[in-house]
Amino acid sequence: MEQVRIFDTTLRDGEQAPGFSMDLDQKVRMAKALLELKVDVIEAGFPVASPGDFAAVKAIATEAADMHDTFICGLARANEKDINAVAESIAPAARKRIHTFIATSPIHREHKLRMSKQEVLEKAVAAVRQAKDMADEVEFSAEDAIRTERDYLVQVFGAAIEAGATTINVPDTVGYTTPQEIEDLFRYLIANTPGAEKAVFSAHCHDDLGMAVANSLAAVRGGARQVECALNGIGERAGNCALEEVVMAINTRADFFQLTTQIDTTKLYNASRLLSRLTGQDVPRNKAIVGDNAFAHESGIHQDGMLKNLQTYEIMRPADVGAPTSLLVLGKHSGRNALADRARELGHNLSGERLNEVFEAFKQLADSKKNVTNDDLKSLILGHAMNA
Ligand code: KIV
Ligand code: ZN
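A: This is the predicted complex of the input protein with 3-methyl-2-oxobutanoic acid.
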């Protein structure tokens, strides 16, 4: 099966979001986890942003001096100073990529850059030409590509490829697109950009409308072969496409996508939790793949189904993502079978009338308590035995 490259931007787009900044040591620890995950590219930072970020990118590049499976990348605006800073900071890495970008949409050209179409195009070409001789690979991004005129996008991308870019990134900078629209856009760009066959097209989706993962997967359907994403979906505003979600979607639905990634999915849970610890930001309970509830079941019907066959209510195994085992949580929605099963695990075989009585007492307790613990259950069983 063809492979989709996973470009991780936890340490750049993710880290630049409020509440998620990391110091040098924390970034290096996170980068080690990303290397273990086997991401194809680590975007380690924006070196020109601060001396601290420059040092962090350099430290990560040093950590990856012998790592030939992962590119270390830094972000640069389309200017000489930014590109020099990236080139210098990623120099120690075994494999180096410079990621340079300029905005192309009318709103950015007119209000932010105050540049004509031609000026933007010339800047893009000059940046790629400069970067080409300073790293193994150059990626070019057209910021706000989604809101850019299609014919102009094709012109800029064609020029960037001719100048030496081998990855062409199409960011949905403001999380505005929809799955159908982005799939169609990728098909159009790949069919119409001169030299498209010499480059890998990449999706970079933000989550402002909660569609970053769906949009990234749609872009893949349209021909994207690199997805830019971040662990736990962190990133500017509502975040980036969540790495663990897009990887597990491709993996779990390989029958549909007919694609694969090189990610070691069994390391996903630990990497997600490490990020949470380093940034002090909890992973929401109901977060897909890595949340506490991702493999937890409380309702009686679901618990009964799980006890009969795990696949009744789980499409992945916790071990696939390195998460702790599935949990049948005892609460007010739980049923008799789950209670009897937990009691058995605790060394008590309940059946018939005895099970009914303990179950009744359990329901009363569960109405006043979110989660009935093993200790609660033991007291109920022993209390009932003493009263009997
Ligand atoms: O969202 C965006 O447009 C970006 C680019 C710098 C790739 O993060
Ligand atoms: Zn972004």
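The two ends are 63 Å apart (CA to CA). The pocket of zinc ion (ligand 2) is lined by residues 13, 171, 173, 204, 206, 235-236 (CB under 6 Å).
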